[in-house]
Fold these 3 entries.
Entry 1:
Amino acid sequence: MADSNISEAMKAAVGTETSRSTSYPISESDIRKWAMAVYWPDKAPAVFTDPAAAAKTVHGRLVAPEEFNPFAWAAAKNELLLTGGLPSRMVNDPDSSERALGIEGPGLKFMLNGGMICEYGVRMGVGDVITGTNSVGEYSEREGRLGLMLFSRGVSTWVNQNGELVRRTTNTLIRY
Amino acid sequence: MTVKVGDELPTFTRETGFANWNRYAAVNDEFVPIHMDDAAGEAAGNGGAFGMGNLQWAYLHNMLRSWIGENGEILSIEVQFRSPNVKGQTVTAKGVVTAIDGDVISLDVWTEQQEGTKLAPGSAKVKMGK
């Protein structure tokens, strides 16, 4: 077993901006389907499905659940800020983040979602266009029940078409 | 509603399995083999396919939204995914008030399975809707 899976090159990459995406305008249907999936089998609250009900809230319009992902299936524009390969969201490869940085990854076989930290700003709603910028966060590791576990973090900052912060998320990817 | 430290939030509960996970995969384009295929989940050391952390995350948001009301605000939330959500589990999102500072309410939040084992513990800050 390796003493550490965190190379000097990986440490040096922390803070690097890796990609930027701009969403298509968020539609009523996008919001409605998302809400139906996360509340299933119950009905989703009317604030996510009925524009008339949503108009009576402080938002004054149909807004998305806070955790809604406007980049899920496609983006209007994807910019790779690196030349090494596709960002991790686009391929099911545990080393894809390091490949995109042009450095060697640890070669671990499995990956899991380790957790998330999210600060919210303004809500996303119908018609909004979200721009998300992704950057490399800190690496750490510790022994776990499945061996030496590598924790790598990605920081994603989303703003809307007015430049207002929508959310800042730190995702932790566990590899082993 | 008067909120006090120690108050427990109304829970959000779902029976979990492919019916939930596939619907979530369909909206989040999360067709990852470990969530779709028992062999892939078993190869990853979890005995079979298991649910998305992102869906546990959504269930916690559902619980918080229901409590704070349509005009409330979720300011922040953080969660660790400690244990896999395997097929057939009854998953419940829970929360308890830990501190109140002006109109900002701090909470411990978590999901747990039917025997009380925590799957995704974390914390959140919210404002109640007016």
Entry 2:
Amino acid sequence: MPQMTDERVRAGMNREEDLSLLNEVSMKTAGVSHLEMCIQCGTCGGSCPVAMDMEHTPRMLFAMLRAGMRDEVLRSNTPWLCVSCYHCVVRCPQEVHIADVMYTLKGMAIHAKLYTNATAPHFSQTFVDMVEAYGRSYEMGLATRHYLRHFPLRLPGMMPMGFGMITKGRMAVMPKRIKQMDQLTAILDRAKQLELNS
Amino acid sequence: MNKYLLYPGCSMESSGRAYGDSIKAIVEPLDLDFEEINDWNCCGATEYLGINLIPAYSLIARNLALAAKQMNPVNGTGGTHTVVAPCSACYLNLAKADYYMQERPSLGAKVNEALNAGGLEYKAGTLDVRHLIDILVYDVGLEKIRSKVVHPLNGLKVVPYMGCMLPRPDYQHRWTDHEHPTELDDLLRALGADVIDYPLTTECCGGHMTQIGPETAFELIRRLISDADERGAHLMATVCPMCQMNIDAYQHETNQFFGTDYHMPVLFFTQLMGIAFGKHPDEVGIGLELVSARNALANIGIEVPVTQEPAAPRKKDEGLPMPRRWTKHEGKEAVR
């Protein structure tokens, strides 16, 4: 065995590794995440169609999780750019549920209010508000609320598209509501309690 | 007659109405019996999962519970245990909930506790969740589809665009390949179309990035349409309402962003099936697309009635001399 002469290596050897963040994320992820199995090969970042816009590739983010860098991870734009295309997931040699880990990190960032750009969290929340109100998605309400809030300057350029969608009957002006809305609300309320207790 | 429970998904009645209409048109010639799940709700798309885990899976599982109840031979209509979802995002969410509730029994238990609050329950693994194209290729079969073709699509150059959420992550190993599946190619060939090899077939259309990070989305859309254009495609065929929406409705904005003038119509594969089966273009929702497929379909002698005159494309040198914008990833040469 080679002699440990490097101070940094020795410091690393003596430090007790704190994997609590890694374990927390893994436990909060749906299915069996395999997150602790990551071997830092970088296949995920190399497969990602939007890696060019990410502050950290998924590989880097997982190393940061292992290093316990909670705030840096939750402030990263990486989970918010993930388009859930699952390219990394099918190529990962360790079968890490990468896309699901990204969902977990989004939820944790919202909870800790650590996201740096509110566009994506607001979009998700607005979408969910519509679903919780009607049981169905409501594109007109979603688009109006979201674009007025975050992309008012895009609206003039989008007029032909919006006009086309409405005149062709591809965007309903009024929302559709499911019949048993009470049942869905009861289910979601109970689910939220369970989420808080878990 | 093969019976299936149908989970249409929200977009089938709105942005993806052409998909819903064309599915209705091909069900009868193919002897399919689609029974809609009563009072189904939204699957949460890719949004709910990023906010709360258990509510997101409970939202999805309510649909599975309703479907399982409906197929029960004792107090339901019976006859099947297969749920068919035509939307790739819905398909993935339903399949994923079913799979993860088994892989992580603690998740399954919590979801069921939530479902109980609404008087429902779902035993994971009871149902088979499948996508429409899976049913058409593997249950109905290409032979039968070929036998129904009365107007072959000979001469129509189509790129098959599968999108990402259908062949991946593929919990049940249903597809020929995760990155280059051939199901859509085979089906379009059975209709007589000239299928163009399209290496980007399972690349992402941008998903919800058109709403939250448009510059990222425009780049993903540009890759898809520019490659299809360079390969000489008349149109793209898709299996997913989100892909259709992004490429069709945001093509204008993408063109503006890059200073390009692509005109790449994108239709649902079921619309092409309807045309090949001799249905009237109106019946299969042709004309609902924003990037008109009129000229593309003229190549095979299909006349699409003009419902409204498409706006004449603006000439390049007209208008104010605005600077052209490039993304940080693109050189000027890469954009035509």
Entry 3:
Amino acid sequence: MCFTHNFWSLTIDGLNNGFLYALIALGYTLVYGVLQLINFAHSEVFMSGGFAGLFLTQWWVGSGTPGGAESIALVVCGTAVGAVTGGTVAFLLERVAYRPLRRRNAPRLAFLITAIGASFFLFSLAGKLFGRDAQGIPTLYGNGKLFSVFGGDVHLYDVIVAGSACAMLLVLDRLVARTKLGQGIRAVAQDAETASLMGVNIDRIISQTFVIGGLLGGAAGFLFGIANNVGYTMGFVPGLKAFTAAVLGGIGNIRGAMLGGIALGLVENWGVTCVRNSWRDVIAFAILVLILMFRPTGLLGERLGRSA
Amino acid sequence: MDRKFIVRAALPIALGAVALTACSGSSGSGSTGNNGGGGKKTYTIGFQGPLSGGNAALGINEKDGAQLAIDQANAKGDLPFKLQLKPADDQGSADGSPPAARSLIGDSNVIAVVGPSFSGASDAAGKLYSQANLLMVTPSATLPDLVNHGFTTFYRAVADDFAQGPPDADYLIKKAGAKKVFLIDDTTDYGKGLASAFKGELSKAGGKLAGSDSAPQTSTCIPGATGSTSQYPSEASKVKSSGADSVFYAGYYCDFALLAKALRNAGFKGQLMSGDGSDDSKYVQGAGAANANGTLLSCQCSDIASNPNGASFISAYKSAFHVDPGAYSAESFDVTNAVISVLKGLGSNPTRQAVVSAFASVNYQGLTKAITFGSDHNLKVQTAFLYKVVNGKITYVGDLSKLV
Amino acid sequence: MTVSEAARPGGPTRTRELLQHRELRRLLGWLGGGVLLAVMTGPQGVIGQPTYAISHALRGGHLVTCLVVGVVMWGLSVGWSHGRESVHAGLAEPRAQLRTAWEQPAVRRGFYLVLLALAIFLPRLTGQFWQGVLVEQIGIYALLALGLNIVVGFAGLLDLGYVAFYAIGAYTTAYFTDTLPVHPPFTINPFLVIPFAVLAAMLAGLILGAPTLRLRGDYLAIVTLGFGEIITILAVNLDSITNGSRGAFGIPSFSIRLPSWLGGWHYEWGLSSLPYYYLLLGFTVTILVLFHLLENSRVGRAWVAIREDEVAAQACGIPPVKYKLMAFAIGASTSGFAGVLYASKISFINPSSFTVSASILILVLVIFGGMGSLFGSVVGAAVVQWFFKYVQKNNGAPIPLIHKKLPIDVQDLYMYVGALLILMMIFRPQGIVPSRRRAREISMAEHGIGGADAMAAPVGSPTP
């Protein structure tokens, strides 16, 4: 009974979460594809996007109440600034922390530890610079109910998240499949050594991959912050969940990350209809373990090179 | 080959560290009863609370309150000795508590301790203080069980959760007109304690429990916490489908702000209420004034701004620390003053033992409340107060026990 | 480095040429580091004023101090890169002498004895604060780091949920000492709980490991992380079994009572730290010796083989899953053992001591000390935890070791830990007391021969 009671409203919440997970998960999966590295610092890329959007909107809105065209401009600019900041942080991260290791051909554990260290460093630095209390992004628009699906209300926020996420996912999918950059990414993911012999500039491709992941993560940071506030440790759980989602879909696989994100969002929210919310993570990780037992490389399998 | 050399280079450093440890350890306890400038002896009042980590704000409020009380007592000059404050950081956790307690116990100059701020930290340090015969007076740990753990030197200068939860339920049902309440706790010891105290009274007050849930603290609010921020929209769905007309949240302000935001976003229009953990202006800030307006908040802390005697405290606090007093600043100020009032009666050579035995019969009228203890080491008169968010400001409503 | 610089399409402009000058680039890098240092040691930011902290950090004497530090570091690094050869040459002689001395067992034995003697006598000179730290922060975490070292350092498996076994040990202790809402069939002293806790943790390790150790390294990391998370959530949510977040209170301390026919001798460890310290020292030394024997046994060699090349190891007849499982179980039981010590020492446990952050802290200790180096784990725990507590104890006061102008705020500890990890991985990936074998693996991997962990091929590919 509990399951059917508010199934549709939880489905809508789940899709909302799922799209955000998918956006973040792509950052993990892209980097994993080209470097076979779990970039734990990606959650801080996400956080930086949230902060950038927060500061922009705080400065813009001041104490007013925006409406109409201004609301649209605010959401678009906030997302764009979040994305650019995320991309910049991701770029610097690769340049400062990972490239020296790559030059030395360091073991993979060293990369992982660096990622954890960068994550610690970035979130504490944000806490130091911007204060340690979570802050709300000012009200950008009236979050009215738009329509209902079988009794589940769909709000403007849900549409904004779903719309912008779908747009970004589509663009990325085409980008990887069709463009020269996408070809390069796939080539490096498949076999970096051969790719470099074929004249692909690996350093540049890796940098660009980080930036693309950062753009998506930073945008997700702002979209997430609109409803859930912005704080220096905000990236921890979304990052963890998005990584889970990436693994769920098959890490290194772009469509897998999208699928994994949405699946995880839905399953989590359906799961807590019948049990307390505090069991949410148990559900998420139990699903993960179950799927890995039967499909050891995730729902859609691993390789980025073969994804498109 | 390189490595061997470095092994040897590293060892002296490690040994040096151990030696440093040894030195700093002994110097800490070596400065017993040093003479202050005016020929008076200097004694120390310790403070234990979170000065770093996720709950540092509360600990810093309390530390500053204690510091102000001590500065004022020194300035007055009617004590036979000088006082100073020694803060010890326990990060508000059970892990950090014993080291913090030992750093105070190990300093023989410390004759009383204000704190710990949190219940878990109190549980982890209680035995140590008891064994050292060192007075510990908490200004804010509200878990009812604490006084039953056999801590001989522990006093709780704050009303416990039972002073807050049951009257909250009474008020919500009888005065605020709620009928079906959805109860959410944040899975911390504080949240669960308050929720169960609230729940016990709810049916007696004639209300119905529409549903209950546990939503762990989120990482946006508490570093290292593992609750999903995205849980609040689904929480709102649950609340709406349960048909509840009001929500009681047992937890802290930052997560309450996220919950309030999600509830209002989902179109929930009912009454919101929470306890002292949420009684902070950052709740309004985080939720947005429009979402927070109308929220009822109860607290064992009285509103210092509306207190007729509070003005001089507020201005002194502001000039000393450049911020307004926060939650529990005034309580900590009162507790420290109560300790000082006991020290006054003990002459120029107070001992830990003497402080503990004299404190049992303390009778001090503070800014916020009268501090006298029953034989259970709880306050004799336990009071809680009610606040309401009006136009984005937390405003004082009244004494809860008189309102219902 | 120079090769790739040459390969870069260089513009003809003068600034560009200048920027490509090696020393200048390095100076700019160090100056950038100086600015970063100024921000790191600057004032705490204020909510609502995003530029406050940065603008106040980057002004006046503070910035100058930090830039001077940057320039000095640059000078040192230039000096080092020029004088490195001669320093090495100058040190070659004494180093060789030390090495020959070290190779004599008597010298080595003597060295360890002196160290042991210091470990026995030095704590007597400190106050109770540091004695407490030696037990609760250093000793117990050294044990945990030793156990994790088996998993991460020896077998090369990344376990991010290691603290779960610690929690299992602690809660088993709480159960058998009757401090949980569920009552045990019999109540025993924490001493006697040790075998139960070790067994419980080992079982948990096997249950977790059996299905997951077939997964590749990265998958293992997320699954163990999830497992750690689940254990904490269980501890919080199962109120009627674990008492939820209120935790278990009143776990007794260790005590020994010999039966009356043996004289009825009785000893209780009580609340003071020193007796616990000696107990812990005894355990740690025992475990160190045991693990050292293990390292050089057949099992240890199998771990090395799996770590360096799993496929080749399997081809040589080493069953990887069996040995990985063994590492997992040994690590888990050490962790469970540490849990008993912790629960009985603090006498109060709640789930907040067993979070993901604790797992990562233990990992940091292992990395810092040196992966695969047993002695390194102990040194890592001692140095890092000592530093944490030292900063915490001197909260607000400037640290005498560092210039007064660059104080460390306790709230920023994790920032320094993060920076330390990044710098270590760049400059000293083998840790402060590296294991010889690991160091060689890392340097071999740098030259493109073999891997240095059980996580398949190294990241990326050799840059041209």
